[in-house]
């Protein structure tokens, strides 16, 4: 018996019947020979982690642009926190942790430089609009490996596609994908509060009491409350024949209060408005330059321009840029240089 088959047998013994089993995956777009050691979901996780797009997350903004502090979250550390929260919830429910990890590691891989400011700009510039979850699928299927894509399983792509949105009715087809969606919200709401307090933009007393009374006064206590509630509520749902990941009404409402508070005070608030506008300006100028001079882009994106049009090719190129790379590109294109010494 191969090692992979032993792992698959272990899944049959320890996972709940409603979990996603590796042997029952819907498969890949291009059929491949099975690995001797790793299950399909383990393979997907490794492909994402070893991709160039994943490495660039370390220089993409979560909320705070170009901060000098070492302890503020980046898109990469956010991804790692989502992964750990999701794996804890998944283990508590009895789900496939390898699938959860693959989805979590890839869920934000299509995010733009400068966080949601960059996403808002590209959504305005592109005729068909722009959403980071849809772009994550595009990166993983059409951009990585010089356009070949990573050939991931359908369950992983589905979980990534449906990880976004707070109260949308659309949800992942697997419980593992639904776990990542909730974990993303649990992670970003709480760690963005933590970063905002660290930055001196919020104080503990500013956080709505209606939420902290239910969830807890500290970052760790709130996450603990949310994780446990997600596990127990989901298990209760399954016992009642409802195959769906969820929070209890009281806990969900408290999380929603926190989320709305952060959007009003931080994400869309006046405090960071000028920095958001600067970031949009930089990205827009870089986008406009390559729209005018597409031949300055790498061949991969030139091919996309020929096949899918100028906006799609330039969007693929600029959306993959890290904050630092986009700023460097803007500087190289628009800022005068010393040519005489």
General description of the model:
Keywords: Hydrolase. This protein is mainly α. It has one domain: Hypothetical protein af1432. Helices cover 62% and strands 0% of the residues. The protein is built from 16 helices and no strands. Helix 2 (40-49) packs parallel to helix 5 (97-106). The longest helix has 24 residues, at 175-198. The protein is globular.
Give the gist of this structure.
This protein is mostly helical. Helix content is 62%, strand content 0%. The protein is globular and about 70 Å long.
CATH topology: Hypothetical protein af1432
The CATH homologous superfamily is termed Hypothetical protein af1432
Number of strands: 0
Residue share in helix: 55-70%
* CATH architecture term: Orthogonal Bundle
Task: Specify the number of helices.
Answer: 16
The structural domain count equals 1
CATH class: Mainly Alpha
Order of helices and strands: HHHHHHHHHHHHHHHH
Which of globular, elongated, flat, extended, rod-shaped describes the shape?
A: globular
Largest sheet: none
Low-confidence stretches: none
Query: Average pLDDT across residues?
Result: 94
Q: Strand percentage, roughly?
A: under 5%
Question: What is the CA-CA span between the terminal residues?
Answer: 71 Å
Radius of gyration: 21 Å
Could you say which structural class the secondary elements and strand pairing correspond to? mainly alpha
């Amino acid at each position: 018996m191969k090692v992979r088959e032993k792992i698959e047998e272990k899944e049959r013994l320890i996972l709940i019947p409603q979990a996603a089993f590796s042997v029952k995956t819907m498969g890949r777009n291009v059929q491949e020979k099975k690995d001797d050691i790793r299950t399909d979901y383990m393979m997907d996780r490794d492909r994402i982690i070893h991709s160039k797009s994943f490495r660039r997350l370390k220089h993409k903004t979560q909320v705070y642009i170009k901060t000098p502090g070492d302890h503020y979250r980046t898109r990469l550390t956010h991804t790692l926190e989502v992964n750990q929260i999701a794996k804890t919830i998944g283990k508590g429910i009895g789900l496939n942790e390898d699938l959860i990890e693959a989805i979590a590691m890839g869920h934000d891989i299509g995010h733009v430089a400068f966080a949601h400011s960059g996403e808002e700009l590209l959504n305005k510039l592109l005729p068909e609009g722009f959403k980071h979850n849809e772009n994550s699928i595009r990166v993983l299927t059409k951009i990585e490996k010089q356009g070949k894509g990573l050939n991931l399983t359908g369950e992983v792509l589905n979980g990534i596609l449906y990880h976004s949105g707070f109260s949308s009715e659309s949800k992942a087809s697997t419980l593992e994908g639904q776990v990542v969606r909730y974990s993303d919200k649990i992670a970003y709401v709480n760690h963005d509060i933590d970063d905002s307090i660290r930055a001196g933009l919020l104080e503990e007393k500013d956080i709505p009491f209606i939420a902290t009374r239910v969830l807890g006064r500290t970052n760790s206590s709130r996450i603990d409350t949310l994780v446990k509630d997600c596990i127990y509520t989901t298990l209760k749902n399954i016992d009642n024949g409802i195959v769906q990941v969820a929070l209890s009404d009281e806990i969900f409402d408290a999380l929603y209060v926190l989320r709305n508070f952060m959007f009003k005070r931080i994400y869309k608030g006046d405090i960071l408005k000028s920095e958001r506008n600067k970031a949009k300006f930089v990205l827009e100028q870089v986008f406009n330059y390559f729209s005018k001079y597409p031949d300055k882009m790498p061949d991969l994106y030139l091919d996309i321009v020929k096949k899918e049009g100028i906006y799609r090719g330039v969007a693929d190129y600029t959306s993959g840029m890290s904050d630092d790379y986009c700023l460097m590109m803007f500087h190289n294109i628009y800022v005068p240089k010393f040519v005489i010494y």
